[in-house]
Amino acid sequence: MASSLTSRLVHLNPITKHTPTKLNPLKNSSSFYFSLPSSLNSRRRAVIMSSSSSYDKQLVAAKKAASLAARLCQNIQKGLLQSDVQSKSDKSPVTVADYGSQVLVSFVLQKELPSQAFSLVAEEDSGDLRKEESQETLQRITKLVNDTIASDGTYNVSPLTEADVLTIIDCGTSEGGSSGQHWVLDPIDGTKGFLRGDQYAIALGLLDEGKVVLGVLACPNLPLESIRTSSQNTKAGCLFSAQLSCGTYMESLDGSPPVKVHVSDTENSEEASFFESYEAAHSSHSLSGSIAKKLGVKAPPVRIDSQAKYGALSRGDGAYIFTVSK
After folding, report:
1. Residue 208, marked binder
2. Does the annotation count 98 as an active-site position?
3. How far apart are CA 297 and CA 289, in angstroms?
4. With 154 labelled, which of 89, 110, 137, 264 sits at a CA distance of 20 to 30 A?
5. So where are the chain's domains?
6. What is the DSSP string of 23-62?
7. Which CATH architecture has domain 56-208?
8. 191 classed as catalytic
9. pLDDT in tens, 269-292
């Protein structure tokens, strides 16, 4: 998902001297994955979203879908039990929240956009849940999804049956393609962070004729203020959204007015900070540390699970993001 939604590549050339380096921030970038200022209150302003975009309806639907999925995930994470975890063939952890998130996103998109052809490229299919040994898991997913829909109150529908849930999960098995519109979903990005009670994200994008035109990133545990200044009492739960050529916006998951956010305006590398993956298995911490040193960066890295780091970057919590594969 990260690679499909990223619209720019930044090449870092090693610097021979350890002198402060002038940064070239991508100010006012329309890319979904680029940052905003480290002092949030200094540059933000409430805005009225443009109504001129041809993807306004899709954006509203995507924000609703990701918000409901985040609500379900928050409730599950609070009472997370080790028995919730399954194992996929690639050995990555899968939770009840993974299925539930996908069901809610698919359900909401189809309810909000009934006249549009629906194509969703997602992670899960119903194969494992149709097995006899998975019936208890399926029952729990169904209950959690119905509870989330009922508590929201938007949709006056009968409770979904287990058969309905299986069918909706399989709506996410589209192969996509270069023609038409296709939604792309990672129902829980950062599963290890989710299991630890740390950062994770629900990542949803829309492709039109093979081009990314819209993205939404729900980060249930990301503070609304800069992660460098927030405390345990800081309210958490952010929803980032962007349309092509319309900029990036952030709001709370409970529906505060969206504000336009901007990349870091730091020009001195000694004052800059950088993000990298929390898991050392996902990125070479030693190599990214060496790059930071060559750039003159003094601050220690901020290590965050999932694409939540891109949301933090896009609002200026840091100036760099290093993803160096091993």
Report:
1. no
2. yes
3. 9
4. 137
5. 56-208
6. ----TT---TT----SSHHHH--B-PPPS--TTHHHHHHH
7. 2-Layer Sandwich (3.30)
8. yes
9. 777 777 776 665 555 666 766 777
